[in-house]
């Protein structure tokens, strides 16, 4: 806890100063609440309006978890296939890069036309957002496998399957978790965007209703909820990473060091 405080007190101090400046500006310039509410008004709404947005949080969390699990599975599977089949990687890798140049907000209406207003288009949106960082990170992790160590196990008679599962796959774990941490935060954003497609519950719905009724304080509450959920999911992936990865590559050398 002390170590965490030593590392984290500076951004907390900066954030606190920003809130003070924000509060001072709304008072000095007498900015109306519908245009820019003060931090105090936002926090008051966050406390008093819990009964309003609590149902929306539950719906969004369920959507995020489901979409993240599907997107992660797809990302890992695609990375493994492209790594084991170089010809497929040459053919499909550029298409994967191009797919990320299509704005999700533009693709979303098409998904509604094709799949309706159910949960399927929402899961597709989250999957499209989540799989890319995982696929790219995992492919880079496979490439970073120590060449000398790989040559050694090949000389020892290891098959390609054994090399992959015993050497390349464990070696790519740090890169995999880097992609998972990015996707964990993106999944919350993807869930909110997908809820704009036409949902009855969710933080995206809560934000849309607040915006249409000029409840700017509730819009800021929704933003705070999105940030909080993103940080929570990021922290959970970080905890799993620390528990699963008990080794790290030595910076100078060709072997693995137990942490």
Q: Domains counted in the coordinates: how many?
A: 2
Q: Assign the structural class, choosing from mainly alpha, mainly beta, alpha/beta, alpha+beta, or little secondary structure.
A: mainly alpha
In the CATH hierarchy, what is the architecture of the largest domain at level 2? Answer: Orthogonal Bundle
Name the shape in a single word: elongated
Q: Name the helicity range.
A: over 70%
Spell the H/E element sequence: HHHHHHHHHHHEE
CATH class of the largest domain: Mainly Alpha
Looking across the biggest beta sheet, what order are the strands in? 1-2
Terminal CA distance: 21 Å
Point out poorly predicted stretches.
250-259
| Strands, count | 2
Radius of gyration: 23 Å
| CATH topology group of the largest domain | MetI-like fold
Fraction of residues in β-strands: under 5%
* Total of helices: 11
Major pleated sheet? 2 strands, antiparallel
Give the full name of the CATH homologous superfamily of the largest domain.
MetI-like
């Amino acid at each position: 806890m002390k170590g965490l405080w030593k590392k984290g007190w500076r951004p907390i101090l900066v954030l606190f100063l920003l809130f003070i400046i924000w509060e001072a500006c709304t008072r000095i310039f007498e900015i109306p609440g519908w245009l820019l509410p003060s931090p105090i008004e936002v926090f008051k709404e966050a406390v008093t309006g819990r009964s309003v947005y609590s149902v929306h949080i539950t719906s969004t969390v369920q959507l995020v978890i489901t979409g993240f699990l599907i997107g992660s599975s797809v990302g890992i599977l695609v990375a493994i296939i492209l790594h084991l089949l170089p010809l497929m990687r040459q053919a499909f890798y550029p298409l994967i890069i191009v797919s990320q140049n299509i704005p999700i907000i533009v693709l979303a209406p098409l998904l509604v036309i094709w799949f309706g207003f159910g949960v399927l288009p929402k899961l597709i949106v989250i999957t499209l957002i989540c799989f890319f960082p995982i696929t790219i990170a995992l492919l880079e992790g496979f490439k970073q496998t120590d060449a000398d160590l790989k040559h050694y196990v090949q000389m020892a008679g290891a098959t390609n399957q054994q090399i992959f599962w015993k050497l390349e796959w464990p070696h790519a774990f740090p890169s995999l978790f880097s992609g998972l941490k990015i996707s964990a935060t993106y999944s919350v954003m993807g869930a909110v965007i997908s809820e704009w497609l036409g949902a009855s519950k969710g933080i995206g719905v809560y934000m849309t209703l607040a915006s249409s009724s000029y409840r700017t304080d509730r819009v800021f509450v929704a933003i705070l909820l999105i940030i909080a959920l993103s940080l929570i999911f990021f922290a959970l992936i970080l905890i799993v990473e620390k528990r699963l990865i008990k080794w790290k590559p030595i910076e100078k050398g060709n072997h693995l060091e137990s942490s």
